[in-house]
Amino acid sequence: MFLLRAGLAASLASTALAIVNQTSCNGRTYVYEELAGYGTVPSNARDEFGDTLNFGSALALDRSQWKKLSNGSYTGVLWGLPDRGWNTQGTLNFQPRVHKFDILFTPSPEATVENPSAKNLFFTYKETIRFYGPDGTPCTGLDGDATGHLSYPGFPDLPVSTYEGDGFGGPGPGGKRIPVDSEGIVLNDDGSFWISDEYGPYVYRFDASGRMITAIRPPNAIIPMRNGTESFSADSPAYYEGDNPEVIIPSDGPSGRNNNHGFEGLTVSGDGKNLYVLLQAATNQEGGLESQTERYTRLLKYDITIPSKPRYAREFVVPLPLYVDPTAKPSKNPKVAAQSELFHIQNGQFFVLARDGGFGHGQDESLSNYRQIDIFDINSATDIKGNTYDCANCSVASVKGVLKPGITPATYCPFIDMNLNSQLNRFGAHNGGDQDANLLNEKWESIGIVPVDGLIGDDDEWFVFSLSDNDFITQDGYMNGGAFPYSDESGFNLDNQALVFKIKLPDHSRPFDRD
Ligand SMILES: *[C@@H]1O[C@H](CO)[C@@H](O)[C@H](O)[C@H]1NC(C)=O
Ligand SMILES: *[C@@H]1O[C@H](CO)[C@@H](O)[C@H](O)[C@H]1NC(C)=O
Ligand SMILES: *[C@@H]1O[C@H](CO)[C@@H](O)[C@H](O)[C@H]1NC(C)=O
Ligand SMILES: *[C@@H]1O[C@H](CO)[C@@H](O)[C@H](O)[C@H]1NC(C)=O
């Protein structure tokens, strides 16, 4: 009896020792058990249209396709959302799209720092769906115009991008397209997708063939303004404008989403009835103009019970985490870790991917100081929806980023540190150190979860997938259906990287329950 108990205690102790970390958020305990997987897709991979393949702005895992095989491997279907096309030297007339992959994942729990596992997550490219406006005109990755919009019956005013030639610097008739800088994805049962964007920032629904069928325009407080009118340009000049781009005045508008700080986070509740969308960081009137003050960002909830008629339902403030940037002066610290992805768990709790910028493969500095999948809880947060905070230039915080009295923000709880070399090294990957292919990329921007049991996650054990956005950086790149070759002037080839974390959700979590 005594021996049995001692044995049990020893095995419990070793289980407890084996975890990487755990956190308790509003009484619910989450455990980061281990890094379970690592995989890559080459930087020069191309899609069925001949364009360089990038997949990391967001991901969606098809729940119905996730299977555990009898030999211990898993197979599934992953949709990866590329960014707005190669854009490190100017935006291009790249048609926004989503890629479908078959995935094969074989956990390697025996991997150690001394005996690392080879890559154990593999992607097989299947197909691509490109996005079109309501009238069938392709959407574009080009910047929005400084003024003006497009109108379609049944849609709110949409941002417009007016371009010359073919939009890549070659001849052509020019035209007007809806600019979409895709950053978040929700996959629906009918094959349609909700896609969140940074230009509007808007949320769009595209049908299974890629045609836009619904658009959500956020409250006026979030709409970017210049000179007192809406102005959707992110001041991201087109590549073809070369050294004399159109000058946008002012570059940063005084209110609304900051340039390239749009709707990075998009997720749906397990019952499919509520869509949540999270701004990357504060709006400009609320501290969004400085990395030290952009802390208080907005989470919007839309009831999508009738998908063609989304209903704005609630709004909350999420306080982003702070970190110290060792390359910045003390007076420029601490900085805010802006967020790149959102995932709804259950009971008012969400995963959020918050990180620093400018550190990693292809950057001047290789060591990232904050790259985490954290948790926030909105159960005690103030619902701020309404004219007091939603009207144009209305604010939940001062321009210096001080939260207004009377607003309780979400509760924020740190969780998975993606940067731990004690885990990354088990798969040959690393944070900091040499600029080699296994140095983590700068931008991690996606979250998807699937059950370890391959069924419904009855034991609360889940795999969390995350992908990086490599900004299409390669020396062997193609845009415009293969007609526009490029080599990024950085000289780097950044593979598309993926990580898988094994976690335990709070007891009896059912993130995909439909009741
Ligand atoms: C398990 O089977 C699948 C399908 O045949 C195969 O692709 C995979 O490599 C196998 N896994 C292992 C660990 O042998
Ligand atoms: C805003 O006003 C300035 C000064 O009149 C002008 O130069 C600029 O083009 C205007 N910007 C927009 C977006 O209209
Ligand atoms: C918007 O709000 C900010 C901060 O309260 C203020 O400084 C600015 O003057 C306002 N702008 C307009 C156009 O009302
Ligand atoms: C575990 O989490 C705590 C709280 O966030 C943090 O201070 C600590 O550094 C973490 N440890 C590891 C190994 O991630």
From TrEMBL:
Classification via Pfam families: Phytase-like
InterPro entries per UniProt: Phytase-like_dom (IPR027372)
Signal in keyword set: yes
Domain Phytase-like, first and last residues per copy: 128-386
Keyword Signal: yes
Highest taxon listed in the record's lineage: Eukaryota
The name this protein goes by in its record: Phytase-like domain-containing protein
Organism field: Cadophora malorum
